[in-house]
Specification:
Blueprint: H1 6-13, H2 16-20, E1 22-28, H3 29-39, E2 43-46, H4 53-64, E3 76-79, H5 83-95, E4 100-104, H6 106-121, E5 126-132, H7 147-150, E6 158-162, H8 165-182, E7 186-191, E8 199-205, H9 207-213, H10 216-224, H11 244-250, H12 252-273, E9 280-284, E10 290-294, H13 299-308, E11 314-319, E12 321-323, H14 327-333, E13 340-345, H15 356-364, E14 371-377, H16 386-396, E15 405-407, E16 417-418, E17 432-439, H17 444-458, E18 462-469, E19 477-485, E20 498-503, H18 508-511, E21 519-528, H19 534-540, H20 543-551, E22 555-559, H21 561-568, H22 575-586, H23 591-606, H24 611-626, E23 629-630, H25 651-656, H26 659-669, E24 702-706, H27 716-720, E25 726-731, H28 733-738, E26 748-750, E27 753-762, H29 772-776, E28 782-786, H30 791-801, H31 816-819, H32 838-848, E29 852-856, H33 860-866, E30 883-885, H34 892-919, H35 927-938, H36 943-959, H37 961-964, H38 979-989, E31 998-1004, H39 1005-1011, H40 1013-1022, E32 1027-1032, E33 1035-1036, E34 1042-1043, H41 1067-1072, E35 1078-1082, H42 1088-1100, E36 1105-1110, H43 1125-1134, E37 1141-1143, ...
Parallel strand pairs: 2-3, 2-4, 4-5, 5-7, 6-7, 10-11, 10-13, 13-14, 14-15, 15-16, 17-20, 20-21, 21-22, 29-30, 29-31, 31-32, 32-36, 35-36
Antiparallel strand pairs: 1-8, 6-12, 8-18, 9-11, 17-19, 18-19, 22-23, 24-28, 25-27, 26-27, 33-34, 35-37, 37-38
Helix pairs in contact: 3-4, 3-8, 5-6, 8-12, 13-16, 17-22, 21-24, 22-23, 22-24, 23-24, 32-42, 34-35, 34-40, 35-36, 39-40
EC number: 1.2.1.51
GO biological process, one term: response to oxidative stress
Catalytic activity: pyruvate + NADP(+) + CoA = acetyl-CoA + CO2 + NADPH
Length: 1225
């Protein structure tokens, strides 16, 4: 029999208070934490960081809606410029007597640490809610482990751990109660994504219950200690060696009380709700000999294994209150029979003999006859399943159990890993499990969250949902894992035994051969495809899919949801169609009731977008239900020939793949990265150049086809393509005839060359179908056609074209047309279809990419541009290309400055040595090398010329390599017999420094305007020869569209749900005030010519340059989509919404006006323009009284801005006129 608190739960749940104070609702962990933080606080200060961001967004939304907390007022929510700023503001708030909270994760939490020491040292109540996420080392990751919270152990904060969504609600509340009474600040943490984003059935605490449990006298005492001139005092003093030690020790009495205060509140909470918690909760056999100790969501699969094997003498201790760690309470929870303990840490402290929790447990059982071993699990969000738990208990049963083990990976270097067996079905009996394979931006995830809500709120069933995402911004894989059942479900791992699988994109069947592996025999499989007949399915289904369908006797259905979506006017949005199919086939609710509830959900979700959108979605539901086709497949499918399986990767490509792609990237693309052993990953997270070209996603149903008869060869399609999937080429007649399919290559004469013909080539496997090129073409010579008609011939021709020489000397590369014949060294990124950021950086790489170093701030551009194992930055035929690095979000400017200083110093050192070599006449017998080196010295600071001379020197030294390669392992400081050879060897070794580098420090407006502005300002004042590129989407586009200081007035964003009340920060004008900074404001989508001119001038400028690029973004809610981004951007410029200009301080010395306004006077129609973006239009439905006022104020903002710039330009006109007049006089 298991020893547990479940009997207590059943007894108390019958109490009438339970129903009075609780309602069951589906919500995720972040919502639960936000609800508690909102209800229990006066103020909140925050800053967006994944996966914690939605907590702050919800708090801001509720505040804007006027929802009251338990104190009878809306929470005051303030978005700060950084997490450090949030912690500082919170410190001030609690010092002034408020109850304060914040929400953060990972590096954000680390930025708060200095203030955490101050808050704890001052004995000030506060609660930090943490969606725990790893702290990036060799790479950034948004998934959970405990490296962030473990870094705060010394701060003096009490630490409370929650492992389920319900616990987030309950223990978050208890944390607030305990901090008020104890005066010790609390850090309440739960696993990022695994718990923060898991949707589950939650008993929501009623505000009346919360009010009854608050210690109001303790709140009064806190306020009595506040900073107030009516009872003044001084705090935050400077202390000397005489008293500091004593003050530290004096606080021990407060900390000693915390465990008892927390347990007291846990007991009171149980009396009122029926949910009993203890500081250390034990579950398992009353005479357990083997016990696992763990914190967080990892406890759930351990608990399931204990319940699966009730007769084994095994147990579990869930750690709730981690700091202060009460040895007394830990030992009282531990059965007296325990012989061995396995402590599981979700963190690795490199160099430590044991991990943090293990060290605490070892200390707690010191002197007891108990063996403690440690292990690591789940780091970086790695799956932790019942089968892995079973292996841990089995390890404890060994004669010599493995210590410091890992589970969930294959460690073939140090052999720390435990092997584990087949999946163990440990979910509660009666649970139905469903998997939905969707695509980012198709609405699948949102629809599944709605499904959970409908089921939980309208049936006695419990629900759970977890959502896995690929790294691509949109168009990537999403996998929704939904569970429903008569018992509460806390299975914190992916589904391995499914009753229902839906595949929303037919191409997944050929990419992911494990898609149907979880399907139970006789379960249902639903496919979205145009293959409605058995003949079509016979032809197109991979044979391995056929075998699994037939051998498992699956109930197989097909629906052409994509066609239905097009017919009802919802192109690409198949979410509601597939949800209707789910409700019809799952029988979880009566069909009529389910469809009715689904339509109500549609009204609630889409009403703000207009009645038309609501009706289209309803029509999609009705049409979808009528068009489900059950497939009666033949028995012969069971024996479908394995030789004819459609492979994820054709064999011909596998042979050609580089080793990294073959050994690392391909398994990850096939979603088998969890199986990669350590020996395959021995490169500290580095990615070789150009790996993205090997993916070939090919997910778009439509791609452009070029009509050469209309083409004017402007290359507009290429310059605006976000993914470099359409390019112009110069090709000879001979080359055309050698192409795989010359018959589909159309060519045009070009006036600049007779040897080559002009052609446009599309890559149908890399195109995302965004339609930007087709819509931007001035002559309408690109038409979207079914991709299947293009893939074979045009795909092979693309591969052929990529091997042809780059012919970029026929036209000047600084012109719109000429720039596009240069190889783009950014290609096939993971950005959204229609992205406005990638074309800008792609253009920069075409101009300077061969000698470019990029410091990239964390954000959208680091995710689509730097997610392992995809590297969209590629190299040219010489192997040269952008070298890309990322440090953090907040320090990117400083990181880039460090790169620039390092490169500059290394080149100066090389120059010094070469000058020394020449002074010593070491090359007197080699006039060619002497001449080249002197020439290099002359052009040292010229990027183009130094690059040209560098190639000459390298080519020459290659020809002489045999003279000095024997000395290649020696230093120039060694004694060589031939000093000349030694010098040549040194130059050759440092040849990568000969060419001047082009340093680009780039990132989004969240970095440049907010968290990183201090660093940006320092760079602007430094005079260093670097280029700052700000990708201005006017929101935090990576974390979901939060407001930044770049967000315009009236713009609806997260944290400004009622429309931003202040004007957009004028970063450009602020930079101009330095006088020596080149500043440009561009919009490539609207005016490519101006953008090219500005970028070229910026790079040429000797000093700091700042280029601010307005980028249309999915977060803007452009009503007709990003496909019309360029046309929409032109409207933005013409109406004055965005201003184009260039400020070149070099012009003043030439007697010219440094300020060039490239925008003309704003045209009428500004308010009409605002209607085309949901971020402005939605304000009319949510806050109609504010909408007109704020939008009128926005018009005033942009009018005054234009007038300021005209006046500023006029000042220089007057100055130059005066100078000219003086000169004449």
């Amino acid at each position: 029999m298991l020893q547990t608190t479940k009997k207590i739960k059943k007894k108390i749940i019958s109490n009438s208070l339970f129903k009075m104070f609780s309602t069951k609702e589906p919500m995720d962990g972040n919502t639960a934490a936000a609800y508690i933080g909102y209800m229990m606080s006066d103020v909140a200060f925050l800053y967006p960081i994944t996966p914690a961001t939605t907590m702050g967004e919800l708090a801001d939304k509720w505040s804007a809606e006027g929802k009251k907390n338990i104190f009878g007022i809306p929470l005051q929510v303030t978005e700060m410029q950084s997490e450090g700023g949030a912690a500082g503001a919170l410190h001030g708030a609690v010092a002034a007597g408020a109850l304060a909270t914040t929400f953060t994760a990972s590096q954000g939490l680390l930025l708060m640490i200095p203030n955490m020491y101050k808050i704890a040292g001052g004995l000030m109540p506060a609660v930090f809610h943490i969606s725990s996420r790893l702290v990036g080392g060799q790479g950034l990751s948004i998934f959970c482990d405990h490296s962030d919270v473990m870094a705060t152990r010394q701060t003096g904060f009490a630490m409370m751990s929650s492992g389920t969504v319900q616990e987030v609600m309950d223990l978050g509340f208890i944390s607030h109660l305990a901090t008020i009474q104890s005066s010790i600040p609390f850090l309440h943490f739960f696993d990022g994504f695994r718990t923060s984003h898991e949707v589950n059935s939650v008993d929501v605490l009623n505000p009346e219950l919360m009010k009854k449990m608050v210690d109001y006298q303790a709140i009064e005492k806190h306020r009595e200690k506040s900073l107030n001139p009516e009872h003044p005092h001084l705090r935050g003093t400077v202390q000397g060696t005489d008293v500091y030690f004593q003050f530290i020790e004096e606080t021990a009495r407060y900390y000693n009380k915390v465990p008892y205060i927390v347990q007291q509140y846990m007991d009171q909470f149980a009396e009122k709700t029926g949910r009993q918690y203890r500081l250390f909760d034990y579950l398992g056999h009353p005479e357990a000999e083997r016990v696992v100790v763990v914190m967080g969501s990892g406890a759930s699969p351990v608990e399931e294994i204990i319940e699966k094997f009730p007769n084994e003498k095994i147990g579990l201790i869930k750690v709730r209150l981690y700091r202060p760690f009460s040895v007394e309470h830990f030992l009282s929870a531990l059965p007296k029979t325990v012989k061995r303990i396995a402590v599981l840490d979700r963190v690795k402290e490199n160099g430590a003999p044991s991990q943090p929790l293990q060290s605490d447990v070892v200390s707690a059982v010191h002197g007891k006859n108990i063996e403690v071993i440690g292990g690591r699990f789940g780091i970086g969000g790695k799956e932790f399943t019942p089968a892995m738990v079973r292996s841990i208990y089995d390890n404890l049963n060994q004669l010599n159990p493995k210590n410091n083990f890992t589970v969930g990976i294959t460690d073939d270097i140090l052999n720390t890993s435990l092997s584990f067996g087949e999946n163990i079905d440990a979910v509660p009996q009666g649970t139905k499990q469903c998997i939905f394979w969707g695509m980012g931006s198709d609405g699948t995830v949102g629809a599944n969250k709605n499904a959970i809500k409908i089921i939980v709120e309208n049936t006695p069933l419990y629900g759970q949902g977890y959502f896995a995402y690929s790294a691509h911004k949109s168009g990537g894989v999403t996998i929704s894992h939904l569970r429903f059942g008569p018992k509460h479900i806390d299975s914190s791992y992916m589904i391995t035994d499914s009753d229902y699988i839906a595949c929303h994109l037919k191409s997944y069947l050929g990419k992911y051969d494990h898609l149907l592996n979880p399907a139970k025999p006789g379960s249902k499989f639903i496919l979205n495809s145009p293959w409605n007949t058995i003949e079509e399915l016979e032809k197109n289904l991979p044979n391995n899919v056929k075998r699994q369908i037939a051998r498992k006797k699956l109930q197989f259905y097909n629906i052409d949801a994509s066609k239905i979506a097009d017919e009802v006017g919802l192109s690409g949005r198949i979410n509601m169609i597939m949800q209707a199919v789910f409700f019809k086939l799952s029988n979880v609710l009566p069909e009529d009731k389910a469809i009715g509830l689904l339509k109500k959900a549609i009204e609630k979700e889409y009403m703000r977008k207009g009645e038309d959108i609501v009706q289209k979605n309803k029509d999609a539901v009705d049409t979808g239900i009528r068009n489900i086709i059950e497939i009666k497949y033949p028995e012969t499918w069971k024996d479908a020939d394995p030789e004819n399986d459609l492979q994820t990767i054709p064999k011909k490509i596998i042979v050609q793949d580089p080793q990294f792609v073959r050994d690392v990237m391909r398994p990850i693309l096939a979603m088998k990265g969890d199986n990669l052993p350590l020996t395959k990953l021995d490169f500290a997270g580095k990615i070789p150049s150009g790996t993205s070209k090997y993916e070939k996603r090919g997910f778009s149903d439509f791609v452009p086809k070029w009509d050469s008869s209309k083409c004017i060869q402007c290359n507009m399609c290429s310059v605006l393509c976000p993914h470099a999937a359409i390019r112009p080429f110069f090709i000879s007649e001979e080359e055309k005839n050698k192409a795989p399919y010359p018959e589909v290559i159309d060519v045009l004469e070009d006036p600049k060359t007779k040897e080559y013909k002009f052609t446009i080539q599309i890559s149908p496997f890399d195109c995302t179908g965004c339609t930007v090129c087709a819509n931007a073409c001035p002559e309408n010579c690109l038409q979207m056609v079914p991709s299947e008609t293009m893939k074979t011939k045009h795909g092979d021709n693309w591969d052929y074209m990529m091997k042809l020489p780059t012919r970029d000397s026929i036209y000047k590369t600084t012109t719109l047309k000429g720039s596009q014949f240069s190889q783009p060294l950014l290609e096939f990124s993971g950005a959204c279809a229609g992205c406005g950021e990638t074309p800008v950086i792609k253009l920069v790489t075409q101009l300077f990419g061969d000698q470019m170093i990029i410091a990239n701030a964390s954000g959208c551009s680091s995710v689509w541009g730097g997610t392992f194992p995809w590297n969209p930055y590629t190299s040219n035929s010489l192997g040269h290309g952008p070298a890309w690095g990322n440090s953090l979000f907040e320090d990117n400017a400083e990181y880039g400055l460090g790169i620039a200083k390092s490169v500059s110093q290394l080149r100066v050192k090389l120059m010094a040595y070469i000058k020394d070599f020449l002074a010593k006449d070491l090359f007197e017998k080699d006039p060619v090398l002497t001449s080249l080196l002197r020439k290099w010295i002359d052009v040292f600071d010229d990027r183009v010329e130094s690059n040209n001379v560098s190639q000459e020197i390298q080519k020459y030294l290659e020809s002489k390599k045999h003279l000095f390669e024997t000395n290649s392992k020696k230093s120039i400081f060694s004694e060589f017999s031939n000093e000349t050879e030694n010098a040549m060897n040194y130059i050759y070794k440092n040849k990568d420094l000969l060419a001047k580098k082009s340093i680009w420090i780039q990132g989004g407006d969240g970095w440049a305007y907010d968290i990183g502005y201090g660093g940006v300002d320092h760079i602007l004042a430094s005079g260093e020869d670097v280029n700052l590129l700000v990708l201005d989407t006017e929101v935090y586009s990576n974390t979901g569209g939060q407001s930044s200081k770049s967000t315009p007035r009236a713009g609806v964003a997260k944290f400004t749900a009622s429309g931003k009340t202040t004007a957009k920060k004028d970063l450009g004008m602020m930079a101009i005030t330095y006088g020596n900074v080149y500043v440009a404001s561009i919009c490539l989508s609207a005016n490519p010519t101006q953008a090219i001119k500005a970028i070229t001038e910026a790079e040429k400028h000797k000093g700091v340059s700042l280029v601010i690029a307005y980028c249309p973004c999915i977060e803007h809610g452009i009503k007709n989509g990003l496909g019309i981004g360029p046309a929409h951007a032109k409207e933005a410029i013409s109406k004055g919404y965005y201003l184009l200009y260039r400020y070149d301080p070099n012009l003043l010395a030439l007697g010219k006006n440094p300020m060039v306004l490239d925008s003309s006077k704003p045209k009428p129609g500004f308010h009409e323009f605002l209607k085309s973006e949901n971020r402005f239009e939605s304000l009319k439905s949510t806050f109609p009284d504010d909408a007109k006022l704020k939008q009128d104020q926005l018009l005033n903002d942009i009018t005054q801005r234009y007038q300021r710039y005209v006046a500023f330009k006029g000042q220089f006109d007057s100055l130059l006129k005066q100078k000219k007049q003086k000169k004449k006089n």
